[in-house]
Amino acid sequence: MARVVVAGGGIGGLAAALSIAKRGHHVVVLERSERFAELGAGLQLAPNAMHALTRLGPGAEVRAHAVHVDELRFMDGVTGAHVTSVPLTEGYQQRFGNPYVVVHRGELHGLLLAACRDAARIELCPGRPVAGYEQDGTRATAVLDSGERISSDALIGADGIHSAVRRQLVGDGPPRISGITVHRTIIPMDQVPEHLRWNAVTWWAGPKCHFVHYAIAGGKYLNLAASFDGGATRALAGVPVAKDTVRDLFSVLDAAPRQLLELGEQWKSWVLIDRAPVDGWTDGPVALLGDAAHPMLHYAAQGACQALEDAVVLGDLLDGGGADFARCFVEYNRLRRDRTAAVQRISRESIGLWHPAGAAAAARNAALSRMSPTDLHDHLAWMHGARDFTAGAPPGLPYQGAAR
User: Fold this and answer.
1) Longest distance between any two alpha carbons in the chain, whole Å
2) DSSP state of 282
3) Per-residue DSSP letters for 102-139?
4) Of 50, 101, 110, 298, nearest in space to 216 by CA
5) Closest residue by Cα to residue 121 from 24, 14, 30
6) CA distances from residue 334 to 97, 272, 310, 324, 392 in whole angstroms, order as listed
7) Which single residue of 34, 73, 85, 393 could bond 202 by disulfide (Cβ 3.0 to 4.6 Å)?
8) What is the Cα–Cα distance from 214 to 202, expressed in whole angstroms?
């Protein structure tokens, strides 16, 4: 039985621990914070993520906790007109084999954490920030901020977009600042007007801005996320912002989305960051996973989904006690690189779907309204319908992804 260290106890790190432990290895998860927890609010999980969660273990529990969504609903945010919807019920679920659901990030993290705590081969270690690593081709050592060294047969860097493992392995500097700021809050569902309680992921697209909302926590709350391209130049995360500021930024939107925004309190803001795809995520018995490997903007709603896919593919390759980790990691990198790079690029390109104005917005609306439900499902099939998690994007997709 090999010993594998995972740097990072978020969704990707815990998923990796479950997948690797199921293959007979002992896993040590080193989490930077003093306790295992997940920040943020709503999270969308397409069928590919649900397939991965079923393989990892807690798929049934996630289905039971999640809100099962009927449609992805696209609105012109300025006129208030309904442009199109992607239906997510019978035909969609029959084709892709699973529902499209939304959860609170903390719910998903908590279910993965519970599964890890129940696993005899997983050791959870909070308050152990990883600063870097050493490797000699056959063994890896996690170097902690304190100077402590924890040796293992392999190291997985699942320590997020600011990954210390990536900083040493790839060395590509700080993340790219997108210029877009997203403002988030949640509101009790009983405060939401009845006529706006749609069982949908709904987004209102406007000039240089868009607003997304959907139910979470079993329908008890409405998750609000309003993005504005104001050319931000400094990365911020979870910074409180005045309600009046949010209201003023989105004053161009129609009365219905503004009514929901007005209900929001205790807004917090994040400046969105990502990185360009890279070819290599491995260094001998060291590999990256999730946001450490392929951080992406949230406009394809696939960040967590792709981390879960990573975990499944990695575990499959490490099946058996005598795994050659360096060789397996090279194969993992090869199998996952093109698919995740396609999602990264699509997530950036999707800004062109959400933020145009005038004639460009009218052309977008016309193009989307001409697409049938089958067309829309065909468009998403490579991403949502994946089972082996290694296929990239087909060429020529006109509008990519779904906003989160």
Assistant:
1) 62
2) E
3) EEEHHHHHHHHHHHHHH-TTEEEE-S--EEEEEE-SS-
4) 101
5) 24
6) 26, 28, 12, 16, 12
7) 73
8) 6
Task: Report residue 120 as tokens.
Answer: 């005899």
User: Tokens 């490579």 — which residue?
Assistant: 382
DSSP track, 45-111: E-HHHHHHHHHHSTHHHHHHHSEEPSEEEEEETTT--EEEEEE-SHHHHHHHSS--EEEEHHHHHHH
Return the residue matching tokens 């001409």. Answer: 370
Judged by DSSP in three states, 271 sits in strand
Tokens 């290694």 -> residue: 390
- The helix/strand/coil state of 205 is strand
DSSP bridge partners of 103: 43
For the record, the structure tokens of 226 come out as 């309003």
User: Dihedrals φ, ψ of 342, to 5°?
Assistant: -60, -40
pTM for this one? 0.95
Residue type, position 336, single letter: R
- Locate 167 and state its tokens: 């900083």
The residue with tokens 């432990």 is: 21
- Confidence grade of residue 393 (pLDDT, cut at 50, 70, 90): confident
